[in-house]
Amino acid sequence: MIAPNVIISTAGHPVLPILREHNFVYNFPVYIGKNVWIGSGVQILPDVTIGDNSVIGAGSVVTRDIGANVVAYGSPCKAVRPIGEKDRKYYFKNYELDVIE
After folding, report:
1. Which label site among 28, 69, 72, 96 has the fewest CB atoms less than 10 Å from its CB?
2. Residues in contact with 38: Cβ distance below 8 Å, sequence separation at least 6, in sequence order
C-alpha cells in the first residue's frame, strides 16, 4: 500500500562537484517487499530495499535498507520496533481489534 505523495527516487547525482559539472548521474533500483505499507509523504532514495510486511511511517526519508516485519520511521528512517503481539490486539494506538482469529 502506497499513500499519497510518496516519492520513489532511483536517480541521483554525486557529491563531488567536478562530476556534477560533467553531468554525471546514477540510477539504482529500489526494492519493496510484499505487503509493505508506505505512509504519506515518504521519500525512498536509490539502492534501498524494504523488507516484506514492514510499515514506513509518514514523512520518513528512507536512505538505507529496512528489514522485514518492522515499523520504521524518521529522517533518516530507522526500524523502531518489530511487528508483534501488540499489533494483534490493537489496530491503531489503543483501539482494540474486535475480530476473533
Report:
1. 96
2. 1, 2, 3, 6, 32, 44, 50, 56
Q: Which helix (H) or strand (E) holds 20?
A: helix 17-21
Its pTM stands at: 0.89
3-state secondary structure of 19: helix
CA 78/CA 1 separation, integer angstroms? 19
pLDDT tens per residue, range 13-56: 999 999 999 999 999 999 999 999 999 999 999 999 999 999 99
The set of residues, in sequence order, having a beta carbon less than 8 Å from that of 71 and lying 6+ positions away, is 54, 55, 57, 79, 80, 81, 82, 83
* Cell triple for 64: 538505507
Residue with cell 562530476: 19
Q: Among all residues, which ones are annotated catalytic? A: 13
Cβ neighbours for 9, distance < 8 A, ≥ 6 positions apart: 30, 43, 44, 45, 46
